């Protein structure tokens, strides 16, 4: 990897497909470190927050590490953060699983709730609809790989912040990805999404290390 490759930290807080994310990001052109070192997470060109399993367990891992303020500070400073799957969900105000409400990091509005679908989990390939202006490198109809039973579903609240919301549908519409200032989150797994996922990670990596303007103001 050349010295000019952007430096990306995959945050190791005890949850996530760390090695598959590491390999996919390296293939996208990043110099990748998998670490729990918060100083490295704060100063890297890009920070990736993966996550699998339960919302509450992922939040407990982030809190034990003390990672929440580092993630929030990066977003406030316009330094890119990418959240994947439950690592995306924890960026919201909270999650409601099995009758338990767990606060999230509060960087995006809304509560992550169970999909009101005939069959959950939503597992496998599904298409997305991509808004104009997206930096994801994806197009309407592109297919990504999903494994989840919960999602952010208040699309109106997200769009009211000025965020770009890529949507998916599994009986009901949900946020498949959100771009808000320096923060990008994907409910799907780009590292498991073959060519479309690789293109997304290349697009995200290509934007590093340049800072992204701070999040847009809410719509009037």
UniProtKB/TrEMBL annotation:
Q: Does the keyword Amino-acid biosynthesis apply?
A: yes
Catalytic reaction equation(s): 5-[(5-phospho-1-deoxy-D-ribulos-1-ylimino)methylamino]-1-(5-phospho-beta-D-ribosyl)imidazole-4-carboxamide + L-glutamine = D-erythro-1-(imidazol-4-yl)glycerol 3-phosphate + 5-amino-1-(5-phospho-beta-D-ribosyl)imidazole-4-carboxamide + L-glutamate + H(+); L-glutamine + H2O = L-glutamate + NH4(+)
Annotated catalytic residues: 85 (nucleophile), 189, 191
Q: Where in the cell is it found?
A: Cytoplasm
Q: Name one GO molecular function term.
A: glutaminase activity
Q: Name one GO biological process term.
A: L-histidine biosynthetic process
Organism's domain of life?
A: Bacteria
Pathway(s) it belongs to: Amino-acid biosynthesis; L-histidine biosynthesis; L-histidine from 5-phospho-alpha-D-ribose 1-diphosphate: step 5/9
Give the Glutamine amidotransferase domain ranges.
9-197
UniProt function note: IGPS catalyzes the conversion of PRFAR and glutamine to IGP, AICAR and glutamate. The HisH subunit catalyzes the hydrolysis of glutamine to glutamate and ammonia as part of the synthesis of IGP and AICAR. The resulting ammonia molecule is channeled to the active site of HisF.
Q: What is this protein called?
A: Imidazole glycerol phosphate synthase subunit HisH
Give the species this sequence originates from: Pilimelia terevasa
State the encoding gene.
Answer: hisH
């Amino acid at each position: 990897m050349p010295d000019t490759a952007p430096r990306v930290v995959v945050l190791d807080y005890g949850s996530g497909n760390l090695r598959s994310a590491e390999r996919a990001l390296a293939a996208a052109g990043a110099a990748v470190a998998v670490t729990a070192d918060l100083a490295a997470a704060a100063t890297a060109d890009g920070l990736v927050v993966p996550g699998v399993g339960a919302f509450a367990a992922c939040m407990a891992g982030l809190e034990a590490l003390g990672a929440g303020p580092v993630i929030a500070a990066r977003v406030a400073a316009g330094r890119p953060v990418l959240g994947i799957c439950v690592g995306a969900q924890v960026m919201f105000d909270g999650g409601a699983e099995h009758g338990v409400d767990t606060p999230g990091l509060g960087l995006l509005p809304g509560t992550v709730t169970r999909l009101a679908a005939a069959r959950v989990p939503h597992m496998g390939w599904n298409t997305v609809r991509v808004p104009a202006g997206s930096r994801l490198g994806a197009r309407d109809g592109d297919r990504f790989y999903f494994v989840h039973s919960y999602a952010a579903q208040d699309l109106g609240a997200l769009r009211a912040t000025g965020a770009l919301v890529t949507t998916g549908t599994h009986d009901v519409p949900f946020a498949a990805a959100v771009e808000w200032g320096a923060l990008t989150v994907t409910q799907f797994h780009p590292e498991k999404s073959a060519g479309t996922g690789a293109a997304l990670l290349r697009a995200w990596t290509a934007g590093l290390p340049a800072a992204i303007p701070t999040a847009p103001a809410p719509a009037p």
